[in-house]
Design a protein that fits this description.
Layout: H1 5-11, E1 19-23, H2 29-40, E2 44-48, E3 53-60, H3 66-69, H4 72-87, E4 94-97, E5 101-104, E6 107-115, E7 129-136, H5 164-185, H6 188-197, E8 207-209, E9 215-217, E10 227-229, H7 231-237, E11 241-242, E12 247-248
Parallel strand pairs: 1-2
Antiparallel strand pairs: 2-3, 3-7, 4-5, 5-6, 6-7, 8-9, 9-10, 11-12
Helix pairs in contact: 4-5, 4-6
Length: 251
């Protein structure tokens, strides 16, 4: 299942500190990352060689308790959003649906997942986190357009070609930049960048991210109470993912 590490590393232009593991088409980058994270260490990047999906995961080693370290999801969402924006055709928008779904040109193209040691308490610093990303690169020929009312692919929405290695390399660089910002200026720049791409049904309400990663929506000026949406519960649903397709949902 695992192909040559040397060949995989040569295919990517990654910042220092990353180690690449390549899986064949039947592999699962996120599941493999969870299985090896304890031994692999920070910067291990697992990717799957599929033509129809851009699928990869990266191992992280946070330095704060799990309850706040889960906010690494938003740094990852920003990084893949910036990577898509850097390679996409002009006048195409990247947006998010809370907390982990990725839209391109208003169609669902994929999402992110976050995993951690199952025995780690919220007030404990986790030994590792695994951040997984999956994007639909190309439409599957056997699926008719009518069956995909709101799902799309990068190529279906304007990419002439999806260069997986370049996209992942761009993600890795943006992720490092995001974590540097977090360390130097706190989490606010990460939150602001994520919220700027978050789909909002009512733009008049102010959105924020709590220390535990929950989404906070302020009450309107004419009254009401603040609305809180749990990050932990939302991550558990993985609403963008279709297990039957083993990929992003189509409808």
């Amino acid at each position: 299942m695992v192909s040559s590490l040397r060949d995989a590393e040569q295919a990517f232009d990654l910042p220092p500190g990353y180690t690449v593991i390549s899986l064949r088409e039947s592999g699962d980058a996120f599941a493999h990352g969870l299985a090896i994270a304890g031994e692999a260490g920070a910067g291990t990047l697992i990717w799957v060689g599929r033509y129809d999906l851009v699928e990869f995961a990266v191992v992280l080693e946070p330095d704060e308790p799990l309850v706040s370290a889960r906010r690494a999801l938003f740094a990852g969402m920003n990084a893949i959003g910036d990577a898509i924006a850097a390679h996409c055709p002009p006048e195409r928008a990247v947006s998010f649906e809370w907390p982990d779904a990725i839209f391109f040109d208003q169609g669902l193209v994929g999402g992110a997942r976050l995993g951690w040691p199952p025995d780690c308490g919220g007030d404990e610093v986790p030994a590792w986190l695994v951040l997984g990303v999956m994007l639909r690169a190309a439409d599957m020929a056997e699926l008719e357009t009518a069956s995909a009312p709101w799902g799309t692919s990068l190529m279906g929405a304007g990419f002439e070609m999806v260069e997986t290695e370049a996209l992942i390399g761009s993600f890795a660089r943006h992720l490092m930049t995001g974590f540097d910002q977090w360390n130097e200026r706190g989490f606010k720049p990460i939150a602001d960048a994520y919220l700027a791409r978050l789909s909002k049904k009512e733009d008049s309400k102010r959105h924020g991210i709590d220390r535990n990663g929950d989404l906070l929506i302020d009450a309107p000026a004419d009254g009401g109470s603040q609305v809180r949406t749990s990050l932990l519960e939302s991550l558990a649903r993985v609403a963008w993912y279709d297990p039957g397709l083993r990929g992003p949902r189509l409808g």
